[in-house]
């Protein structure tokens, strides 16, 4: 089962939980214990949404890590001399400067 499927199932279950909490609240009323259960259900939904956000960021980080291991081929051929025009050699000082 993929994480996307598991997260979708969590959303379904949380929806069921919220409906049950609402039904229970209509029977027992707005008492402190019921308010705590309501807040807990909302917090679970918020936590799952944060988990989805973190999972998306981890996928991006994994993709970046995989990309960082790719090798870039640099040819052994000479560069065009125009590429180096107006470039100073490090440690030697500026060309044409006294």
Low-confidence segments: none
What is the helix fraction of residues, given as a range?
Answer: 55-70%
Instruction: Label the overall shape.
Output: rod-shaped
Mean pLDDT: 80
Q: What is the total tally of β strands? A: 0
Order of helices and strands: HH
User: Could you say which structural class the secondary elements and strand pairing correspond to?
Assistant: mainly alpha
Quick structural overview:
With 98 residues, the protein is an all-alpha fold.
What features would you highlight for this structure?
single chain; 98 residues; mainly alpha; 2 helices; 64% helix; rod-shaped
What does this structure look like?
The protein is mainly alpha-helical. The protein has a domain of 66 residues. Helix 1 packs antiparallel against helix 2. The chain is rod-shaped. The termini are far apart. The mean pLDDT is 80.
Write the layout of secondary structure elements.
Elements: H1 3-28, H2 32-68
């Amino acid at each position: 089962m993929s994480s996307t499927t598991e997260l979708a199932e969590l959303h379904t279950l949380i929806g069921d939980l919220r409906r049950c909490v609402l039904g229970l609240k209509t029977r027992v009323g707005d008492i402190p214990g019921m308010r705590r259960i309501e807040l807990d259900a909302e917090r679970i939904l918020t936590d799952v949404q944060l988990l989805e956000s973190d999972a998306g960021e981890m996928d991006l980080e994994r993709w970046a890590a995989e990309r960082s291991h790719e090798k870039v081929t640099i040819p052994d051929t000479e560069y065009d001399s125009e590429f180096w025009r107006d470039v100073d050699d490090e440690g030697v000082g500026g060309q044409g400067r006294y």
